[in-house]
Write a structure and sequence with these properties.
It is built from 6 helices and 16 strands. It is globular and about 55 Å long. It has helices spanning 18-33, 49-62, 79-87, 136-144, 172-182, 207-216; strands at residues 3-11, 36-44, 67-71, 75-76, 92-94, 109-110, 122-124, 126-127, 131-135, 148-151, 154-157, 163-165, 168-170, 187-189, 196-198, 202-203. With 220 residues, the chain is of the alpha+beta class. It has a 7-stranded mixed sheet. The protein has a 3-stranded antiparallel sheet with strand order 4-15-16. It has one domain: Spore Coat Polysaccharide Biosynthesis Protein SpsA, Chain A.
């Protein structure tokens, strides 16, 4: 039976970066060769990113997709990464991407742990939803344990939401990772992968090398 996978991409202005598009086209091609049907869905023209993400989750639940991967429209990635994450038994694995700044080297990962497991993955606190695989089981658990609401007459769940705690704003991706941990899931990052991030220029990074440099740095 063909595996059916949703690549979920919010695209507020309806535009897809050319490097993202090139990566996606090649992902669809190599996945088809492996008997995997990749269905990209672009949720456009919604100013509320959390609502757009919730609608993409609803679609995955309603259409009973076998796999689900967030990929933002301003990222360039290696198409083989999609297949690697889908084949992995861990439920939640993210690919790091550099933040759009030249001031310092920053990534969308929160962790105090820098030690990889036997698979070469690092268990972390949270990661942005720029490139993130969530298993079918974990996605269903998120849906079942989130507050229901109506959007244009259709039932949705507030899986992705923005919170204010202790005077600080908590983004929807960090909230979602917290929910997953509360449900008993571990969040993992693949340090051997790093997306390029499109902005005024292409921002490159190497998260694995970044981790090694931090580990070798003298204690403050």
């Amino acid at each position: 039976m063909t595996q059916k996978v949703l690549i979920a991409t919010p695209a507020y202005d309806g535009r897809l970066d050319v490097w993202y598009t090139n990566s996606l086209i090649n992902t669809v091609r190599i996945a088809q060769e492996q008997g995997i049907f990749i269905h990209p869905v672009f949720m456009s023209y919604d100013a509320l990113i959390q609502r757009a993400r919730n609608d993409l989750i609803r679609l995955a639940i309603e259409e009973n997709y076998d796999g689900f991967i967030w990929i933002d429209s301003d990222l360039e990635f290696d198409p083989s990464w999609v297949l690697e994450l889908l084949e992995h038994e861990k439920d939640i694995i993210g690919v790091p991407c550099p933040k759009k700044t030249d001031r310092e080297e920053l990534y969308n990962v929160r962790t105090r742990n820098l030690e990889p497991d036997e698979d070469g993955l690092i268990e972390i606190e949270s990661i942005g939803t720029g490139f993130l695989k969530i298993s079918k089981k974990a996605l269903q658990d998120l849906w079942d344990n989130s507050t229901p609401y109506k959007n244009e007459g259709r039932e949705c769940r507030m899986v992705c939401e923005v919170l204010v705690e202790n005077g600080e704003l908590i983004s929807e991706d960090n909230v979602m990772c917290r929910k997953l941990r509360d449900l008993g899931y571990s969040i993992w990052v693949a340090p051997h992968m790093t997306c390029a991030h499109m902005g005024p220029k292409k921002y490159y990074g190497d998260f694995g090398d970044f981790v090694q440099r931090i580990k070798k740095a003298p204690a403050a």
